[in-house]
Each structure stands twice: as structure tokens, then as C-alpha cells.
Write a structure and sequence with these properties.
heterodimer; A: 113 residues; mainly beta; B: 115 residues; 10 strands; globular
Chain lengths: 113, 115
Amino acid sequence: AQSVTQLGSHVSVSEGALVLLRCNYSSSVPPYLFWYVQYPNQGLQLLLKYTTGATLVKGINGFEAEFKKSETSFHLTKPSAHMSDAAEYFCAVCRSNDYKLSFGAGTTVTVRA
Amino acid sequence: GAGVSQSPSNKVTEKGKDVELRCDPISGHTALYWYRQRLGQGLEFLIYFQGNSAPDKSGLPSDRFSAERTGESVSTLTIQRTQQEDSAVYLCASSLEGLENNEQFFGPGTRLTVL
């Protein structure tokens, strides 16, 4: 079975500062990894995903994540936070031969002016 | 084009009543998923439909929960004899067929409150 751990349920950053959201996973087979963002009163939106190939994945809104197999991690970063980045972020994993996503508990990001 | 839509957006019901939640997937998406999101928790997989194959119901928490899908279109999630612990946001997602296309597009969810 797959599982996902997101370190920190809440992260507060200053506008312009680095955003770092941590995600560690466990999977018995090569995983597909995802980051989703959920803005208030909206559905989840895919930020980026890793399936195969390059381990550094770039997504929308300036976010990127790096798949590190040795660390079983898929941390999400953005060099400079914007007020519009305030949202809840979810890391998810599925086996490469499956379709069920397992989600982390989510990290709420607040951005201080 | 239109995304995944869900109705109602909010539902308040009394304990013991039955509720039906509706999901309209993106046209052409053969795969449809239901998830539950409890307050402060991640999403829990409930059920998966793919074309005409038998649905994967492995995530349904009890026999009070059931879901149907008409062809490759609308799905309804039914909760019978609702309990307070059923209070959550129920999210529907759809995707194209094939694992390499496993980008799930989510609807806005239905917030269910059981009093």
C-alpha cells in the first residue's frame, strides 16, 4: 500500500520568500507523484506530477518539485511566494500500475504581506 | 470546456436520512472517482468507475454507501441512514482512460453536514 506524509499542517511565509512544502511517500513499486492545490471553495487543481523521466518537475504558477528516490521524497518549492499562493496543498501518490491516489493530510499555506 | 460539476454544493441533513450526491464528469472521461475529505484530513478514496468494467468499491466505508454510474456520464453517490461521522466534503474526479493519463480533474465538492 502507498502512504503519504506531509510535514507541517500549516506553513506561513512572507511574500517574496521561499515556499517549501515537504512530502515523503512509501510505495512498494515505482510511484507516480502529484501535488494538488485547493483554493478556498474550489476543487483540487493539479500543480505538477512526476511519472517517469526527469526528476525535477516544473508545474504551474512557478512551482516545482524534485523526486528523490533515495529519500522517498517529493518536496514542493517556489522561489518567491505571492499572496495568491495562499491555499491548501496536497501531495498524492499512486503506484505506476494503479489508479488510486493516496493523499497526504494537506498543508495550509498563508502568505504574510 | 466545462469541468467536473457536482451538486448540491452544500447539503444539510438529519441523522438517519438518506442523501444522494451527483457528479457530472468531463465529457469523454471514461474514469470517474469519488473521494471523501474529512475536516483536517487528506482525501480518502471511496470508489472508482472505468468504462463498463466492474467498479472498484474497495474504499467504501460501510454498506450504507453505494454509487452508480450511467454509462460514461453521470454518477450518484448514495449514503443511507446518514450518521454524524459522514459529515465531510465529497469530491468527484474524472480522467481519461489509461494510467499514463492519470491526471484526475476534480469537481468543487459537496459539503455534507449531518446534524
